[in-house]
Design a protein that fits this description.
The protein is α/β, with parallel strands linked by helices and 327 residues long. The strands form four sheets. The protein has a six-stranded mixed sheet with strand order 12-9-13-16-14-15, sandwiched between helices. A five-stranded antiparallel sheet has the order 2-3-4-5-6. A hairpin with a 2-residue loop joins strand 5 and strand 6. The protein is globular, with a radius of gyration of 21 Å.
Amino acid sequence: MRPVVLVLALLWSWCTIAAPAGRVGAPDPQGWVDLARWGAARGLAPRVAGKGLQLDLVGRSTKISFFADTTRFAFDGTDVRIDIPVRRMGDRFFLAQRVMESTLLPLASPPRRPASRPIRLVALNAGHGGKDPGNIDGHRQEKLYTMMVAGEARRALERAGLQVVMIRQGDSFVELDDRAGKANRAHADLYVSLHFNAIQGAGAREVHGIETYCLTPAGASSTNDNGNHGGPWHRGNRFDRDNIVLARQVHRAVVGGTDLEDRGVRRARFKELTMLDMPGVFVEGGYMTNAEDGRGIYTPEGRTKLARAIVDGVLAYKRLVERGGAE
């Protein structure tokens, strides 16, 4: 056998051995889950599309799409970013067991909140403030617009019958430790931190859209960290499953209720998220440096639309976890 042929044969043999096998939906010894088998066990029919580079799992009211060799999948149309790429071997698609447990399973089977602990109090953080202006675009300072959106969101939440604790009042600066601390001391049920993005450099003004972050789970790298797993002291928190569900509900509501492009549900270890005693999200509600997004940030109508969409997401999460059903 010629050397090149021998090498190819050995590679093919290795891939065949490494491919997951065994019970339907069960992880293989390498820590990967066969997605078609996993879906079939849940009544989701597999359909390969995109010239063999996309796997859709389709049910009566659910569609989950996986894209080969990318760090993303789409859950009922919502873009979800992950830290380990979807793997394709032949016509089969695999997801890392850790990603399955921390991201896909909570979305497919949302955790149920005990009836004795309904969601009543939401902590709202208007990002930055005081000595920290946040992003600046010309004369516009992020801290002013996050406060205006937070005010709109507070009124909408109160109209819906929920209580609200504001992390900062007026143009004041609250230390990172104290942001989570104030929410924890108030025994808030959820935490929502409001921010706006900005980017500089060539082509920067073309970047636009909504990004919604929740805490990176233990042992994983954040979706923007280029493989940095953060060390053993990054433990995630006991709300890892709730965090991703809350983020997805808020993100989906904003994408559906505004003109913002879907830039994905993402993971990060923002300090205020790491210290929470409740589920929390960090919303980047558009790019101040983009003219299209700016119309939603710099106008009262745009801010009202964004605030109401965020609240719609919070209320959708509340309905979902309090009744324990899919939505």
